[in-house]
Design a protein that fits this description.
The structure is a homotetramer.
Chain A (H helix, E strand, L loop, with lengths): L1 H15 L8 E5 L6 E5 L12 E5 L17 H10 L5 E5 L35 E2 L2 H4 L10 H11 L4 E4 L3 E6 L2 H21 L10 H13 L2 H13 L6
Parallel strand pairs in A: 5-6
Antiparallel strand pairs in A: 1-2, 1-4, 2-3, 4-7, 6-7
């Protein structure tokens, strides 16, 4: 199926673009069965091949096959978002390095400041929300979304948004297609890097709500162009990834 | 034509030097027809070959050929600058990462601080101006120079200068040759990186106006040396680009 | 012996992950003889092969063989820690670049802020201690642990912990296996990088003691996954190391 | 001659370690004729081969051969230092990126903070001096050492030291051998990077004068180890240099 091939490419791109490393995962909702989604078995993203893609149930986050191989500990990040958000067709979870500071510092806002990053705008103008796992799991958890309950809590934090930060952990990004989800994961990291460099220079000018939406529409209409370039780069540097 | 070959090299160098990525473009005015310029079709710079170079009209920014392939959305950055500036023979537009913070923070000045970057000096001593698209397109645009009117507004911001920053977007650099335009694009990024690191250290000493002009003349007379090195590096790492 | 092969991989991984460069070393206690440990001869880690691994005595830090080749100047970092800590089965000493600032600035605390780095927590909540060699060797030493006495002083600073910073020098990381020691060395560097970027953003939220321990247990149980990925990456980029 | 081969390696190492790029140069005094020195013709360091090494006169900085190819514009950096400093046997001039901020910000001190960088200590405890070319050449120069007079002024700034910063330009490093000069160039850059990261963390602890001298002696006695590793890395990545 084309979607399996697209998911394999997504894994390789996210690894080569250094959004994921040994950890992190990307999934896609089944194009014909809204109650199913596709994702690799428990494997580092850079090593995923078509044979590693399994089918899962949105309902309980488990693999459809009997006696599956080891699965990602945090598969409920994906299943519970698909459950809460019928519009979402792809999910990326990562610990991308420039985003993490924003998931660690109180009150740091990941506002969109460049025209490739308009999708980061939120209705309340505050940028993506931060999911604080202590609110649900107490203060001695291992911070992982390891149950349906925790996945549902994360999905509530995400709300109707596109990106949710996860305190001390990373972020999760959603979209209506694999290509747009990967684009958003890469550009969330780029916007974060840009903010880290720009903040010391003085008062910043984020995009207005109108600019954010206009730039988002324009860029997501062109998503094939960065996708094709990233796919080519990942193929050339697939193992080294550095 | 030699200029086509030079333009292909420019695309590859700018990509390998990480000035452009999937986005960004470089053009050259036709050496015999001042009303024409050369630029790739809508393609990631790192993938441009001689067969992708098209001829455009300065007058309306459109391709000369009938039924052209997809063109860059922002071709009027180039056409309107060629129109306003008879002295300009090459234009580079990019979103290079260290420059963007200066196009986002109010009042951050990209002053030349090292002897490779004298071209950044401006008559008013304030460093390159910043084009604010809201002044022309309102506050809900997608920040792209997608018309003659917007290109003309950008050209007015550039004035008689060499570099113009574009708020929330990137920068545009001009020169009297492709090699000098590429040099300026690379060193605008290097000067920006240097400022980002030096600003926390204390009061900086920018070049005097005299030093800026003397260093500019010296370095631009030697432009073949970095060009030849960058061309060799780009050939060696053309696909990976990392 | 499998452990020799594991040690060679550890050297290659630490070099490829840029934790060590020309300097730094990793050792493992002999699985059958608690009074012996294995480590390379004096060689840059990226160049270590199985033939370079020697056996040393915990008691005096010397090689067991007669007429050994040149040994690491700081082998007592390893021998004295094995002596003081019967639980420790592997030691990594490095000058990894993001950790050094924390070994240079008074009062900078390397607290665990992300879920991969829980092992950095200490009983006193202050993060890893810093060994100040002036306390033992006066203020004109070359900062190297070049004797049993200095190794014993370092081991006292480490105490019952997992990581000790060494002022003006680097750090030493210990664990109950080679894989976990390498994991800890890599993630101490990652946590340090994260703190350097996050500190300017505002008040940080370190992991609670409970989160640190829970995340440590979870991640160390999965250590084979990053280890296998890093081993594959190191094999692909073994010589370039860049 | 072995020294020619060593100089070629030095050029390749400095390029691969990103101390020099298209610009920068390294020279060595002739081992038998104190009034002569060896250096490449005007060529990017990464492209230097044995056939490019020429012999120059210390007295006037010119090539010995009749009708030489193009020479480095700043050869008097080398000749005037060899003239003023009979103890110096090798000189490296570069624009290495982390050092430049210290050559741009008033009062920023490049003090040695780690045990690989003790050579940066100076008798007055202030770290390397900064040569301000305006003192000799007025305020409209191109900042280049393009005459014997300017080279002599730079040598006066260097005095009896090992490193001199050049405002708005870069630095020059000297030593009693090519290997130690290259080591010092690489570690001046590393110490600068470390300071840039550590300064925001709080009060720093530089090495004492005694520690600086002790560490310098220890590390320079081991210079073959990093040299051999860097030589191997440069050979593997010679063209890409990235």
């Amino acid at each position: 199926m084309d979607l399996i091939s697209e998911l394999v490419d997504a894994n390789r791109i996210l690894f080569h673009q250094r959004i994921v490393d040994a950890f992190g995962h990307v999934s896609a909702r089944h194009p014909e069965h809204a109650g199913r989604f596709l994702m690799a078995r428990n494997l580092a993203p850079g090593q995923v091949t078509a044979a590693d893609i399994l089918e899962y149930r949105v309902d309980d986050g488990e693999a459809v096959m009997a006696g599956p191989p080891r699965l990602y500990l945090e598969r409920w990040i994906h299943s519970e978002i698909y459950k809460a958000r019928p519009d979402v067709m792809a999910v990326v979870h990562s610990h991308s390095p420039a985003v993490l500071p924003f998931a660690i510092a109180r009150g740091a806002r990941l506002l969109p400041v460049c025209h490739m990053c308009g999708f980061l705008a939120t209705a309340d103008g505050m940028g993506p929300p931060t999911f604080e796992i202590r609110d649900v799991a107490g203060d001695a958890s291992d911070l992982l979304i390891r149950s349906r309950e925790l996945g549902a809590a994360l999905a509530r934090s995400l709300g109707a948004g596109r990106v949710v930060l996860m305190r001390g952990h990373g972020s999760t990004v959603v979209a209506e297609s694999v290509r747009v989800a990967v684009y958003r994961a890469v550009y969330t990291e780029i916007n974060a890097k840009l903010l880290l460099q720009a903040l010391p220079l003085g008062e910043l000018q984020p995009l207005t709500a109108g600019e954010a939406e206009a730039t988002r529409i324009t860029n997501e209409a062109q998503v094939d162009r960065p996708w094709n370039l990233w796919k080519q780069l990942a193929a050339a540097g697939a193992v080294a990834g550095s």
